[in-house]
Amino acid sequence: MSPQRRRWLLQMARLTGLGAAACSQASAARAQVATSKTALDETGKGTAGARSEGPGTGDAIRRGRPIVFPRDHGAHPGVRTEWWYATGWLVPGTADVAAAPNDAGLLGFQVTFFRSRTGLASTLPGRFAPRQLLFAHAAITDLPGRRHLHDQRLVRWSEQPDAATGSASLDDGRVHIGDWSFRREGALPRSRWRARLPARDFGIDLDLATTQPPVLQGDAGFSRKGPQEQQASHYYSLPQLATTGRLTLPGQAGPGPALSGRGWMDHEWSDEILHPEAVGWDWIGMNLFDGSALTAFVLRRADGSALWAGGSFRAGSPGAVSLSFAADALSWQPGRLWRSGTTGARYPVEWQLRTPVGPFGVRALADAQELDSRGSTGAVYWEGLSELLDAGGRRVGLGYLEMTGYTAPLRMG
């Protein structure tokens, strides 16, 4: 661990309950195009002979390790970094998820919980030993109100499972910081994720129910992030989540009207994310209106060239198998730029992508969706509601675009 990272972690470990930001980390996929080798459903049964593993074991990142549910919905404190990430779109009333919604009432949401192993206090007793840090981000894109709202929290965690200030379960998907929580409920293979985040100026109260099996990204959940094998994570996605609930916006006397739409969830954990030449990444997770799901990413060098790329596609038909993209099978071409008045960063808010399943356009539905936390951890990134366009310019899906490393090279430890 570098002296700079150790000093930063020591400073953060003294804090409890203070708002802070952590930088979201992008999805990646394996190096060659192939169909997923292991067809695991949420019971953990599959062709690779998945076995149950006890809480706190099996955290090492390695190719061939099976993804087992519900255990792997939970935390993996033995590795350095982990996050649970949910995004999506909502409209008032009952959404027609098979058709493009009207932008007049369209809202976007982001909920992310992060866990970071500090490498400190491993032998110290007590509930306040700063073995882990937990971070959370919450954001709403309000297209009718032309505004982007966000809030953040941070707490140290001793790995006590019942810590009131914040904890992450090891046996299932349950993570919280104070009264902010994200948790899985229901008997497998179905899941319902409940997001409850009463933020400073807004509130998120949503249920996200699975409609499809998980997508095991990369090689059956072993997801390469760079040209070296150790630059990898274990990673799965839950696309096409049937999302319902309410958002509370500034100026409202209470929770807003009932909303519905589609969500996307990622869960990823890793010991090493970035190659030394990587300064940041661009990533999308898109729910198509026909039920398909598209993931794509690129890690960039300082000169803007692609260091590594990947992604996946799964058709919306029942029983469809995920297709993983080779590192050289994707290209990202930036289009229109938007300059942040807050940080001065210039972000491409329009993109042209070439993928093994065809060309697509990606266009932000609002330019100003930057999250700036320079006053706390220093992370600055763009994360926002965007549309997916086919070759003819027709909207075929909605999801989130993430862009990092545009103010300064991103460093993950």
Would you give an account of this structure?
With 413 residues, the protein is mostly beta strands. It is 3% helix and 45% strand.
How are the secondary structure elements laid out?
Elements: H1 3-13, E1 34-35, E2 81-92, E3 107-117, E4 132-142, E5 147-157, E6 166-168, E7 174-177, E8 180-185, E9 192-198, E10 203-209, E11 215-216, E12 222-224, E13 232-248, E14 259-272, E15 280-288, E16 293-300, E17 306-314, E18 323-325, E19 331-334, E20 337-339, E21 346-348, E22 350-355, E23 358-364, E24 370-372, E25 380-389, E26 395-404
Antiparallel strand pairs: 1-18, 2-3, 2-14, 3-4, 4-5, 6-7, 7-8, 8-9, 9-10, 10-13, 11-13, 12-13, 13-14, 15-16, 15-26, 16-17, 17-18, 19-22, 20-21, 22-23, 23-25, 24-25, 25-26
Write down the secondary-structure element order. HEEEEEEEEEEEEEEEEEEEEEEEEEE
The stretches of 5 or more residues where confidence is low (pLDDT under 50) are 1-57
- Could you tell me the mean pLDDT? 85
Which structural category do the helix and sheet elements fall into? mainly beta
